[in-house]
Specification:
The chain has 772 residues and is an alpha/beta fold. Helices cover 44% and strands 19% of the residues. The strands form 8 sheets. Strands 1-3-4-5-6 form a 5-stranded mixed β-barrel. The chain has a 5-stranded parallel sheet with strand order 8-9-12-7-13, sandwiched between helices. Strands 17-18-20-19 form a 4-stranded mixed sheet. Helix 8 (255-269) runs antiparallel to helix 9 (276-290) and helix 21 (628-643) packs across helix 23. The longest helix is centred in the first third of the chain and has 53 residues, at 181-233. It is elongated and about 120 Å long.
């Protein structure tokens, strides 16, 4: 049994002298006891965790080295310095903890050493690799190679080399635990090769970095000499600055921009070419030269030609086309004295807002550029970043001017209603200057730092709704509303615009496939229920893709082309069963039900509201994913009914404390909000309480007050189209919306009977039967 010295981050090999410092009281005590023995030996084993202050039997490795203590020196701080000589590697069968000191029951393990040619070859190979290792190692002296090479014993040579290598504890321990000499030499050779390669790579990296540093110093001295020569010869321009100066001489620039370019080029000529500042100046000057300050595309102010372009590209939209032609007429007559107009096209998705902007550019003969504002939250996207930032660029407005190559393009700002704002700024506020005709003649981009004239740019913005556009921004724009399409309009759009493109994209012609007019109308009525024509476009594309596939398969099979005629009965085979909206419009008088009209970002829609009466405690339960405003409308409607019950009906007043009401708006997964369903909720609640039945064929819209006043609403045009789409022609609307009806196009009002109401009692009288 020998006492144990647990070593931190140290593995001692046999035949090696190692100094070690000891400070633990338990280890010092063990050393003092071991020093009194005849051979002054102690068992040194590495700790598994060097952070462990009081290692136990499980905290040290089983294989260690029996060492002789050659010298013991006590230090002033109470620690002890030992000079140890490794004698023999041994394995511990068991550690025993006695009085906080570890002792080890050791056993020798045969090395399996055989003096043969293989061991000698391994020794020589290890020695050669060790020579390379010492050559590349920055801290090992070359004099170490000769004494190690003189060791003929393979086991001792392996231990000596392992002791001098800068390996971690785990890898040194793995070498110590190799009792077989040949295995130890093979593992040592593997470690030597790996470490030598790492040292080679490190030296290569060091040499490369050193070379770059030397090259930079050389360039610095050369640049200083060049600067001195230029000053002596009064040469101001570097080659790059001269190239930019030549570009500036050929470019059409305003005087204030030319002076800015000259100033920056002078700075650039005195700045070292490898300096980061030189790159910043060069990029800045290039942007100044890329902006089309004075370049303009010629306008074609021919009203007749513009009307033909608009009519060819878009069906219907008479009011929108008239407004655009009026703008062109004023611009032709007034010239530059006409004030710039900012047009805002507001309408549901898929009605042609973006394509209308392209048509305006085509009608004017101007370049067209566009970008989306949806989700934009950084003001720098509009105004640009200052040059002090790395990777700074001008804003999107200036970038699009460069893309257009002229100062008077048609610029479409898409999704202006979806601008956001956060800690990086408010892009909507930055757009105020861009879209204000009084200010945009001297718009300042943070990057360019010189005014940019945007007065010749025709800005067109698009939005799905106008109420989410910031009020100051909306005030600067001329709003043009685009309504949803009727089936008849969709039919002409599909026939004149969609189908020719789909024929071309699918590789088919009218000789290959013919879509009958009834089939096209059936696709519109049964397979696309939207305000615009995008879903219709997708459905027609799907139909033609399936026909193209079938035609190709038939051609590959028998080579016989056949003309395909698609009728109404064939649609189910191509597009599946019709997808009709599940809106249960009442066909017979019903109790506890009413039909309202709603407005969404996708256009108008019909809203069914249900109500039931039950035993309760006077509560009103609301379901259907209703927003806060809609919940307040329901409460207001019930408050009106309770306070005016005796005026509204001759029936006995319900015992409100024992009555429960449940109001539900179907399609609960879809959020619903807004005040315009107030009168519709009042009719449904009154019908459920009184038993009066709602007459079919009617629909209503309007906000309700506690006094029973029916207040005005918005979106009446879209709501009328939705009612006609579902076959409802008797509409009850607020009296205050009479002017909106008068402004509608005749084709929208055709066949519709408007009933203007100002009191809820009027609606109750007209829409309910059997309970008033």
């Amino acid at each position: 049994m020998l006492y144990v010295l647990p070593a931190r981050d140290t593995v001692i090999f046999p035949g090696v002298l190692v100094p070690i410092f000891v400070g633990r009281p338990s280890t010092l005590k063990a050393i003092e006891i071991a020093a009194t023995a005849e051979k002054r030996r102690i068992f040194v084993a590495a700790q598994k965790n060097p952070e462990e202050e009081n290692p136990g039997p499980a905290d040290v490795y089983d294989v260690g080295t029996v060492c002789e203590m050659l010298q013991m020196i006590r230090m002033p701080d109470g620690t002890m310095k030992l000079l140890l000589e490794g004698k023999e590697r041994k394995r511990c069968r068991a550690y025993v903890l006695q009085d906080s000191m570890l002792t080890a029951d050791l056993v020798s393990v045969p090395s399996g050493y055989v003096d043969n040619d293989r061991l000698e070859a391994l020794r020589q190979e290890v020695l050669r690799e060790f020579e390379s290792y010492v050559t590349y190692h920055p801290r090992l002296p070359a004099e170490l190679i000769q004494p190690v090479g003189a060791i003929k014993d393979p086991a001792l040579a392996a231990d000596m080399i392992a002791a001098h290598m800068t390996l971690d504890v785990q890898r040194k321990q793995s070498l110590l635990e190799c009792f077989r000499v040949d295995s130890r030499l093979e593992l040592l050779l593997k470690y030597l090769i790996s470490e030598t390669e790492m040292l080679k790579l490190g030296r290569e990296i060091h040499s490369k970095v050193q070379k770059e540093i030397d090259q930079n110093q050389r360039e610095y001295f050369l640049r200083e000499q060049l600067k001195a020569i230029q000053e002596e010869l009064k040469i101001d321009d570097s080659p790059e600055a001269q190239d930019l100066r030549d570009r500036a001489a050929k470019s059409e620039l305003p005087d204030y921009v030319r002076s800015k370019v000259e100033s920056e080029l002078k700075r650039m000529s005195k700045t070292p070419s490898m300096s980061p500042e030189a790159t910043v100046i060069r990029n800045y000057v290039e942007w100044l030269l890329d902006v089309p300050w004075l370049k303009k595309s010629e306008e074609q102010l021919d009203i007749g030609a513009a009307k033909k372009v608009l009519d060819a590209n878009h069906y219907g939209l008479k009011r929108v086309k008239d407004r655009l032609l009026e703008y062109l007429a004023v611009r032709k007559l007034a010239g530059k004295s006409s004030r710039a107009q900012i047009l805002c096209l507001v309408g549901p998705p898929g009605v042609g807002k973006t394509s209308l902007g392209k048509s305006v550019a085509q009608a004017l003969g101007r370049r067209f550029v566009n970008f989306s504002l949806g989700g934009m939250r950084d003001e720098a996207e509009i105004r640009g970043h200052r040059r002090t930032y790395i990777g700074a660029l001008p804003g999107r407005i200036v970038q699009k001017l460069k893309e257009a190559g002229c100062s008077n393009p048609v610029m479409l700002l898409d999704e202006v209603d979806k601008i956001g704002s956060d800690f990086r700024g408010d892009p909507a506020s930055a757009l105020l200057e861009v879209l204000d005709p009084e200010q945009n003649s001297h718009f300042t981009d943070h990057y360019l730092e010189v005014p940019v004239d945007l007065s010749d740019v025709l800005f067109i913005t698009t939005a799905n709704v106008s109420h989410t556009i910031p009020a100051p921004l909306l005030d600067r724009m001329d709003v043009i509303e685009l309504s949803s399409y009727l089936p008849e309009e969709k039919y002409h759009i599909a026939k004149d615009h969609l189908l020719p493109r789909i024929y071309r994209e699918s590789g088919l012609t009218k000789k290959d496939v013919v879509l009958s007019a009834p089939a096209l109308k059936a696709v519109i009525a049964d397979y696309s229920h939207e305000s615009g024509v995008r879903e219709l476009d997708r459905r027609l594309s799907t139909l033609f893709r399936k026909i193209a596939r079938a035609a190709l398969e038939r051609k590959e099979r028998d080579g016989a082309p056949r003309k395909v005629s698609v009728g109404v009965k064939d649609l189910a085979g191509y597009l599946g069963a019709p997808h009709r909206p599940d809106v249960r419009i009442p066909k017979e008088p019903q109790t506890g039900l009413s039909v309202g009209l709603a407005w969404t970002a996708a256009g108008g829609d019909v809203l069914i509201i249900e109500a039931v009466k039950m035993q309760g405690k006077g509560e009103l339960q609301l379901t259907g994913n209703l927003g806060k405003v809609m919940q307040e409308s329901a409460m207001t409607a019930l408050g009106f009914i309770k306070s005016h019950w005796r005026k509204l009906t001759d029936q006995a007043e319900p015992k409100w404390g024992s009555v429960g009401l449940h109001l539900h708006v179907p399609e609960g997964a879809i959020p619903k909000d807004g005040p315009s369903a107030g009168i519709t909720m009042a009719i449904a609640l009154f019908s459920a309480l009184s038993g009066a039945k709602f007459r079919p064929g009617c629909a209503m819209t309007g906000e309700i007050s506690l006094r029973g006043d029916v207040l005005p609403i918005g979106g009446l045009r879209e709501k009328t189209l939705a009612a006609k789409r579902y076959g409802i022609y008797n509409l009850f609307i607020p009296e205050a919306n009479r002017a909106d009806v008068e402004d509608m196009e005749p084709w929208i009002k055709q066949g519709v009977h408007y009933v203007f109401v100002s009191q809820a009692a009027q609606v109750l009288e007209e829409t309910l039967e059997g309970g008033r």
